[in-house]
Design goal:
single chain, alpha+beta, 2 domains, 5-stranded mixed β-sheet, 3 helices, 5 strands, globular
Amino acid sequence: MKLGKNGVRYVRYVPKTIPRGLRLVHNFPPGDPDRPLGAGGFRAFWKRADDAKAKGYFLCRCGWAPHLKRHYTTHLDRIDIVAHVLGVSRVAAAKGGLAAEESRSRTKRSRR
């Protein structure tokens, strides 16, 4: 697959597999794992595997494209960080991990 001059090729649909030597990257966590490409500016693109390991790309566990073993994102928010630390999907972190973290935070504030 040929990439553009900037080393990127945008995808129009969720791929079934990831070609050897490439990494799939999306621009921000989709919120809904079923969010279609193009909705609200949500975009995904191919990068060379060695480029995807560079600074600014993070292994993503958002739940989007679950049939793929792994993909990357250019943006981490609070839920992504919790998911990464707990080793769970973004959805699980939003339901459990983040709630637990916020509960601990509220408990600490109430003790002050």
